[in-house]
């Protein structure tokens, strides 16, 4: 049991403040930010944190308890209720849950990724040079690893030499060292809906974020230019290919416009390409259009297996020494064992084969979703791991999330992706990849479809 200095990120809505607090509580429980048994702030502390009266907080906690989110113990406090410690992503649900929340596909027994990883580990255990792979290595990776990284990024259209590659411990590590190295106190320009890991890294580094409007084609050029002028930020973090959470793919004309604006205002681009390998025949990355101003973040985890925490960061050649220093300051040395597997898989074609299998599986699951959710508007491309669904105005996305959770189905709340506090859209991100099988996915989507087809319940009810 732990005390938690929880402060809600309140959504802008017409609902009463107490209701907005409960919605924020439910979203943070669903996201795993709060765990079972966590002690919530006292009524007075939370009232001070959000600028509310004690009566408002009392009503919020009472409503949260009625909805089964918390429990109160006289003399002890208010605690997050009925959650399971050890469930990393969705502590609201028991082990029979259907997980439609996270991005990455799991390693399933018998699939290509699982078999390849089993064989790779067995091979490593019998190698004569295992001792050498058990020590430290160069901060930014060996020459062979950097060459493999350049080859892997080349599959997404990034032209890079080994001298431009820094090996990282995954895309999140790459994001953190880039922000710490390149961003200043003016902050970071981000899409108004963006990858939560980037927001977490910026928050950890105490960097302000400046949300920029997006549409179905990605960043809106006029909005980006205005944000550059008003914020004076010199770093842009964006995902032009397979955007998370909307799955949008920025067309080439828009990419050229974004590059032109960044050049005009002297803005450095951090391009997240972690999900780009899933998209065949995507437009050229920003790194190909403006290599002198773009740092490209690639990894293997999303396209192969999540356990392969190896990322490749392409930068202008003169920046690599600075990035190696940042890598040394954060992890000192990545895992030589994982980097060796990554290098072998890239060089012998295993990584590409697993990526192709992931694409096929994603396409099959998108077909299932299209059949079950027929008539329900949403956005997705054919090989995306997830879909983006706006909820009609007469329904509340958090209501749907809670109703689904009551039936052991986890969904991704838009709250997680909103760069501007209080401005999360009334929407869901529905993962198709994390369900343990296509049959399980069908069951989960069928529950969601029934919830969406049903008439809205009272604002604060949860289905039994």
TrEMBL record:
Residues 15-83 form the HTH gntR-type domain. Keywords: Aminotransferase, DNA-binding, Pyridoxal phosphate, Transcription, Transcription regulation, Transferase. The keyword Repeat does not apply. Pfam families: Aminotran_1_2, GntR. Gene3D superfamilies: Type I PLP-dependent aspartate aminotransferase-like (Major domain), Winged helix-like DNA-binding domain superfamily/Winged helix DNA-binding domain. GO terms for molecular function: DNA binding; DNA-binding transcription factor activity; pyridoxal phosphate binding; transaminase activity. It comes from the Bacteria. In the C-terminal section; belongs to the class-I pyridoxal-phosphate-dependent aminotransferase family. PANTHER family: HTH-TYPE TRANSCRIPTIONAL REGULATORY PROTEIN GABR (PTHR46577:SF1). This is PLP-dependent aminotransferase family protein. The lineage of its organism: Bacteria, Pseudomonadati, Myxococcota, Polyangia, Polyangiales.
């Amino acid at each position: 049991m732990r005390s938690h200095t929880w402060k809600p990120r309140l959504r802008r809505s017409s609902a009463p403040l107490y209701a907005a607090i409960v919605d924020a509580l439910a979203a943070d429980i669903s996201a795993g930010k709060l765990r079972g048994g966590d002690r919530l702030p006292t009524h007075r502390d939370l009232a001070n944190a959000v600028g509310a009266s004690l009566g408002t907080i009392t009503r919020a906690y009472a409503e949260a308890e009625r909805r089964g989110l918390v429990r109160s113990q006289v003399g002890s406090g208010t605690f997050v209720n009925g959650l399971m410690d050890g469930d990393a992503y969705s502590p609201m649900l028991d082990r029979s849950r259907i997980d439609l929340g996270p991005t990455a596909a799991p390693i399933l027994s018998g699939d290509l990724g699982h078999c390849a990883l089993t064989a790779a580990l067995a091979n490593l255990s019998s190698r004569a040079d295992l001792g050498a792979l058990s020590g430290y290595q160069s901060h930014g990776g060996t020459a062979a690893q950097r060459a493999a990284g350049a080859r892997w990024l080349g599959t997404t259209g990034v032209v890079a030499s080994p001298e431009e590659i820094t090996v990282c411990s995954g895309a999140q590590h790459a994001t953190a060292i880039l922000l710490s190295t390149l961003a200043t106190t003016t902050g970071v320009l981000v899409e108004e809906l963006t990858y939560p890991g980037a927001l977490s890294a910026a928050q950890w580094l105490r960097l302000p974020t400046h949300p920029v409007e997006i549409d179905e084609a990605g960043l809106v050029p006029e909005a980006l230019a205005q944000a550059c002028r008003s914020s004076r930020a010199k770093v842009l973090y964006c995902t032009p290919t397979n955007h998370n959470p909307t799955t949008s793919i920025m067309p080439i004309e828009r990419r050229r416009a974004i590059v032109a604006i960044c050049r005009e205002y002297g803005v450095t681009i951090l391009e997240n390409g972690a999900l780009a390998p899933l998209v065949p025949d995507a437009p050229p990355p920003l790194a190909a259009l403006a290599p002198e101003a773009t740092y490209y973040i690639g990894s293997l985890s999303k396209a192969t297996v999540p356990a392969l925490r190896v990322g490749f960061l392409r930068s202008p050649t003169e920046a690599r020494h600075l990035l190696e220093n940042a890598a040394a300051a954060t992890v000192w040395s990545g895992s030589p064992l994982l980097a060796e597997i990554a290098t072998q898989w890239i060089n012998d074609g295993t990584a590409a084969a697993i990526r192709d299998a992931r694409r096929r599986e994603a396409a099959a699951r998108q077909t299932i979703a299209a059949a079950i959710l027929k008539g329900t508007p949403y956005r997705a491309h054919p090989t995306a791991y997830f879909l983006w669904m706006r909820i009609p105005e007469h329904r509340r996305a958090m209501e749907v999330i809670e109703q689904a959770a009551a039936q052991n189905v986890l969904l991704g709340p838009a709250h997680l992706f909103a760069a501007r506090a209080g401005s999360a859209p009334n929407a869901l991100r529905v993962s198709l990849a994390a369900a343990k099988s296509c049959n399980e996915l069908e069951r989960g989507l069928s529950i969601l479809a029934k919830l969406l087809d049903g008439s809205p319940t009272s604002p604060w009810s949860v289905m039994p």
